[in-house]
Amino acid sequence: MSEKPSVLFVCVHNAGRSQMAAAWLAHLAGGRVEVRSAGSDPGDAVNPAAVEAMAEVGIDISAEQPKVLTVDAVRESDVCVTMGCGDTCPVFPGKRYLDWKLEDPAGQGVAAVRPIRDEIKAMVEGLIEEIAPEASR
């Protein structure tokens, strides 16, 4: 890994799970980790329920836009975390790949998104412990 580890979060639409994960990592790691997110089939906008759920914990993702997954984004990342996009993520030797099994918040209200948000936070905290432990102290 480089001096500053980089993480790419990938889900299908880059509208919910990967956006929340990227926001949590940026928030909790305090700039010690480079954060990217992308989708294999990006949506038109970030899921409003995800925006609302993150706002409830003081994190604003309302200005984020879904981004298309590129080979370069994977190549430039130390860790690639997929969330339900299956085999659409390009694989490069030497990269670390994690697949987080998370419910898809698409089409669900904020009440259904809150537990997904909280589960993502716990997973991100574990990831920080592994790749940038001093950032979580």
UniProtKB/TrEMBL annotation:
Enzyme kind, highest EC tier: oxidoreductase
Database matches in CDD domains: LMWP_ArsC
Domain of life: Bacteria
SUPFAM superfamilies reported in the protein's UniProt record: Phosphotyrosine protein phosphatases I
GO MF annotation terms: arsenate reductase (thioredoxin) activity
Residue stretches in coiled coil: none
Domain Phosphotyrosine protein phosphatase I: 5-130
Keywords on record: Arsenical resistance, Oxidoreductase
Record flagged with keyword Mitochondrion: no
Enzyme Commission designation: 1.20.4.4
Keyword Oxidoreductase belongs to the record: yes
InterPro entries in UniProt: Ptyr_pPase, Ptyr_pPase_sf
Protein name per its UniProtKB record: Arsenate reductase ArsC
Lineage: Bacteria, Bacillati, Actinomycetota, Actinomycetes, Kitasatosporales
